[in-house]
Design brief:
The protein is mostly helical. It is 82% helix and 0% strand.
């Protein structure tokens, strides 16, 4: 029987432990309902879920599923509070410069959204309990205690997984470029996030080129995220029209059009950034990066993909 790959088990333990530390570091901020803390914990939960998925071959199946379900609950619990925090922040900035009907509509929308945010505060408490409880620690210990070395090469899996996710990302971009549909653009945004989180997990086994790749991916993702923030706010404001008093109901469509225009401006920025990121030459360079980890395989001491 060939030697087992210990690199995967070591990388899983280090990667998951680091992401759990980051997740738990935001507990007090979320407990205080801080906007930045809620955002940071939600992002940390997504990164941790990505690591659990990538490291699945070396993790104990039942313990992984239980722990992943817990972390997925954290992501979901913080979803609505985070969404409303972003909407309120954008709308406050918009109202500061707005006049006339746009300003009055923004004032009304802010009042309604703040009421919804107050009601969503309990979801943050749910997330805090899920991360700061004794059962979290027990599930985490069970997960780490069951890590085992695998037969397959960790670095070979890294090359395969990164290549597959990059292909999915490019496919998602092509689908949106052909349709220009908001639903396809939303799926492209999700694919960008997943690819970035996977790159971050495997980055310690690659060189500076991977760090640069993550930076470029972040720029593209942030431009797309800005569009999505305005899209969500636009839809939230549109939904408020149904129960609004007559004067506000007439003013809200004006605000919706203004927010839609801002979203399109963000989309224009993304379109320029994406044209570079998804160019033929950049795709080829990226594929070369993911095929060539700089670390040697623990079984053969040869560079994978070279």
């Amino acid at each position: 029987m060939s030697k087992r790959c210990s690199l995967g088990a070591h990388a899983a333990k280090e990667g998951i432990e680091a992401r759990v530390r980051i997740l738990r570091s935001h507990v007090e901020a979320v407990r205080r309902q801080e906007v930045a803390g809620i955002h940071d914990m939600r992002v940390a939960s997504r990164r941790l879920r990505g690591a659990l998925k990538e490291c699945a071959p070396v993790l104990p199946g039942r313990a992984r599923k239980d722990f992943e379900a817990r972390i997925r609950g954290v992501t979901r619990s913080l979803g609505r509070p985070r969404e409303l925090d972003v909407c309120i922040g954008l709308l406050e900035s918009f109202r500061d410069k707005a006049v006339g009907r746009e300003r009055s509509a923004a004032t009304y929308a802010l009042r309604r959204l703040r009421a919804q945010r107050n009601a969503a505060a309990a979801h943050c408490e749910e997330a805090v309990w899920a991360v700061d409880s004794a059962s979290f620690q027990a599930d985490f210990r069970a997960l780490l205690g069951g890590i085992k070395a695998e037969q397959a090469c960790f670095l070979e899996r890294a090359v395969t997984r990164l290549g597959a996710q990059h292909k999915k990302l490019c496919t998602a971009y092509g689908r949106w470029k052909a349709s220009r549909d908001e639903g396809d653009l939303h799926q492209l945004r999700i694919a960008c996030k997943k690819f970035r989180y996977t790159c971050e997990l495997y980055a310690p086994h690659y060189g500076e080129a991977m760090v640069e790749l993550i930076g470029l991916l972040k720029q593209t993702q942030e431009a797309l995220g800005a569009w999505n923030d305005y899209r969500v706010l636009r839809d939230e404001v549109s939904a408020l029209a149904a129960g609004a008093p007559k004067e506000s109901a007439h003013a809200l469509p004006v605000l919706v059009r203004a927010l839609n225009a801002r979203g399109r401006a963000c989309l224009d920025v993304f379109t320029v950034s994406a044209a570079t990121f998804f160019s033929v030459s950049r795709r080829g360079a990226l594929r070369q990066i993911v095929r060539t980890p700089t670390e040697a395989c623990c079984r053969t001491r040869k560079k994978v993909g070279r």
